[in-house]
């Protein structure tokens, strides 16, 4: 049996505070602090506690070359090796842990990005419950606790030195962008027309052309993408679209077609939608949810272990989100995007490996309701009259 250290691991010092009961009995309340070390690995969902002996051994075992267990036991305490293996930080050949670790290696992740992506995902988070806790914490007065916010704009010189620019001319694009308002009031009944669904998906995610550049097959789409690789995939939760059964789908960018993954009953679709967007109820009535999932292997194939590669996949989703807003607005539809999502629950529903196809955010589009129940930021009154 051979072992090696897992591919990406970060060791983080932690300080935990507890009430010192002995001091409390002496009527001098004080918080007692406890220090510990925590390991976060890119192939494990949960963090694990480690001690200094285990950290020392991790620093002496190769993450690349396999080493016979007998050799490692000769060099290091057996109990420490067994503990690290049980925690998944030392990986044995031909095991499930090794397979999970291999998915990170073969996707060519940069280490810090891999750990951050894995451990910043949500599971079963209820945003409304968290917002209530925050309100209790700040006693309904966030500014009193958080202090004044930073200025809306940065000033790098005296006002008299500024060079005034001409105003933005009226244009179809300017009018379109004025109507681009994040929707929190979707019509709960009106379905989406198939032409609307097809138009928005095609303009945002569809391939305009295919080409080969220096031997690499690339796509031309309506938004920029690092290296022309376009790693973002669109997965859909369809709830109310004429002619399309409620269910989970994948949009094929080249074929401009929906690939059915699983049909859903209406109640199950509603429950999944609520879970996907972390119980942000104002997004619940959107007839279509779009899951932006980055196919990391597509991007990292070229930008291997690159410090900027993960950032490029995030930017890719940002470009697509804005394009979706504009494509939906042009057709008289409303749109939203949120990063406050339960990535782990979405991955489970669509059968995604977070280290090869990871969820970055969720958007949606549909008809806006006739009445405004939730606040929408529309200071230009382009959607809602003053």
Going by CATH, the homologous superfamily of the largest domain would be NADH Oxidase
Task: Indicate the overall shape.
Answer: globular
CATH class group of the largest domain:
Alpha Beta
Distance between the termini: 72 Å
Question: How does CATH name the architecture of the largest domain?
Answer: 3-Layer(aba) Sandwich
Beta-strand content bin = 15-25%
> How is the main sheet built?
6 strands, antiparallel
Order of helices and strands: EEHEEHEHHEHHHHHHEEEEEHEHHEHE
Number of domains: 2
> What gyration radius follows from the Cα positions, in whole Å?
25 Å
Q: Assign the CATH topology of the largest domain.
A: NADH Oxidase
**Structural class, from secondary structure content?**
alpha+beta
**Number of helical segments?**
14
Low-confidence parts, pLDDT < 50 over ≥5 residues?
A: none
Mean pLDDT: 94
Count of DSSP E strands?
14
Query: Portion of residues in helices?
Result: 25-40%
Organism: Dokdonella koreensis DS-123
Pfam family, one: Nitroreductase
InterPro entries: Bacteriocin_Proc_Enz, Nitroreductase, Nitroreductase-like, SagB-rel_DH_2, SagB-type_dehydrogenase
Domain Nitroreductase: 178-366
């Amino acid at each position: 049996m051979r072992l090696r250290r897992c591919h990406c691991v970060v060791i983080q010092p932690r300080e935990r505070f507890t009430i010192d009961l002995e001091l409390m009995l002496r009527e001098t309340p004080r918080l007692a602090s406890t220090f510990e070390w925590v390991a976060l690995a890119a192939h494990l969902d949960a963090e694990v506690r480690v001690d200094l002996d285990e950290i020392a051994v991790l620093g002496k075992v190769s993450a690349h070359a396999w080493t016979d267990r007998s050799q490692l036991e000769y060099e290091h305490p057996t109990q420490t090796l067994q503990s690290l293996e049980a925690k998944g930080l030392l990986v044995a050949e031909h095991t499930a842990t090794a397979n999970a670790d291999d998915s990170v290696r073969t996707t060519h992740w940069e280490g810090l990005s891999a750990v951050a992506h894995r451990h910043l995902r949500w599971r079963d988070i209820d945003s409304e419950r968290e917002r209530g806790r925050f309100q209790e914490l700040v006693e309904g007065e966030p500014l009193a606790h958080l202090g004044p916010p930073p200025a809306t704009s940065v000033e790098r010189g005296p006002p008299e030195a500024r060079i005034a620019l001409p105003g933005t001319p009226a244009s179809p694009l300017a009018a379109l962008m004025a109507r681009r308002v994040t929707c929190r009031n979707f019509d709960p009944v009106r379905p989406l027309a198939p032409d609307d669904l097809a138009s928005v998906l095609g303009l945002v995610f569809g391939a305009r052309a295919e080409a080969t550049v220096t031997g690499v097959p690339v796509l031309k789409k309506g938004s920029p993408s690092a290296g022309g690789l376009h790693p973002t995939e669109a997965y859909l939760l369809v709830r109310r679209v004429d002619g399309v059964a409620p269910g989970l789908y994948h949009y094929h960018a080249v074929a401009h077609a929906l690939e059915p993954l699983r049909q859903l009953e209406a109640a199950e679709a509603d429950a999944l939608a609520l879970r996907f967007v972390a119980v942000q109820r104002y997004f619940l009535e959107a007839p279509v949810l779009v899951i932006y999932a980055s196919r990391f292997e597509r991007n990292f194939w070229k930008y291997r272990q690159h410090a900027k590669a993960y950032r490029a996949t995030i930017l890719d989703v940002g470009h697509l989100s804005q394009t979706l807003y504009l494509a939906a607005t042009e057709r008289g539809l409303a749109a939203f995007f949120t990063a406050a999502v339960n990535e782990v629950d979405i991955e489970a529903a669509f059968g995604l490996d977070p280290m090869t196809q990871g969820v970055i955010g969720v958007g949606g589009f549909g008809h806006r309701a006739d009445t405004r129940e939730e606040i929408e930021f529309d200071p230009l009154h382009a959607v809602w009259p003053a």
